[in-house]
Amino acid sequence: MADASVAETTSTNPLHLHDIVRDADQDPPAHQRELVFDLHGVNVFYGAFKAVRDVSFDVAKHEITALIGPSGCGKSTLLRSLNRMNDLIPGARVEGTVAYHGENIYDAEIDPVEVRRRIGMVFQKPNPFPKSIFDNVAFGPRLNGVRGSALEGIVEQALKGAALWDEVKGKLKESGLSLSGGQQQRLCIARAIAVEPEVVLMDEPCSALDPIATARIEDLMQQIKDKYTIVIVTHNMQQAARISDRTAFFVTEVNPESDTRTGLLVEYDETSKIFSNPSDERTENYVTGRFG
């Protein structure tokens, strides 16, 4: 269960959100944005059930993009479609185009394993392997054939990149499960970046953490965005306002006959605009706590 202090904050006063939202002047002009993802008409199905429909937006290099919206609106489903993690779910399929540097990652000749190497993922609940701290980080590089001193260097750099090295450098042989929740999540981030991905997807990475650990993860995201492109799913409105450059807001469409829920993208824009001057009334109602 998420700590109450880091749970969904849709009832937050919008003035407070406006106070902490990133300054739009920090963002590069639109014509300077180098696109990493470009989604067009994306639908995601589980069997006959359409979980997400008609999603189109882009993600630029070295930006943090937040996906927000009420529970059941397909945020995590869409996130997993960005590195073909949904392929691992029987009956799941994606329609439309998920272009990564101009190539549709769902084309038949694209290797999903290579997609996941370039596009890493950090999950909601910290999930270290039941191995040593060193072996957790070394897992991916070893699969790629790295050994010896080169492997040691990669592990050290990944742990430094995840702001964890100083805390664990004297106990690399100890179990990753012995770490605190926040440390475990940073270990999982180190494991993800050890294989040198370009993109890191984060599915509510702070929802199971206390406020101090949450702040460490948020600081870390800001520190590593110059090396990685980050897409994060979050229920925490303040978190989205603090850390992201752009925000996509989703709603849930309920089928009254079957009671099934389909996610729909309502608005995608600079985070400052989403939280201070959204174009759609539904977005304003959500970020001001009128629904959600």
TrEMBL record:
Molecular-function GO terms, alphabetical: ATP binding; ATP hydrolysis activity; phosphate transmembrane transporter activity
Keyword ATP-binding: yes
Keywords assigned: ATP-binding, Nucleotide-binding, Translocase, Transport
GO cellular component, one term: membrane
UniProt-listed SUPFAM superfamilies: P-loop containing nucleoside triphosphate hydrolases
GO BP terms, alphabetized: phosphate ion transmembrane transport
Organism: Natronosporangium hydrolyticum
ABC transporter domain span: 15-277
Pfam family, one: ABC_tran
UniProt xrefs under InterPro entries: AAA+_ATPase, ABC_transporter-like_ATP-bd, ABC_transporter-like_CS, P-loop_NTPase, PstB-like
Protein name in UniProt: Phosphate ABC transporter ATP-binding protein
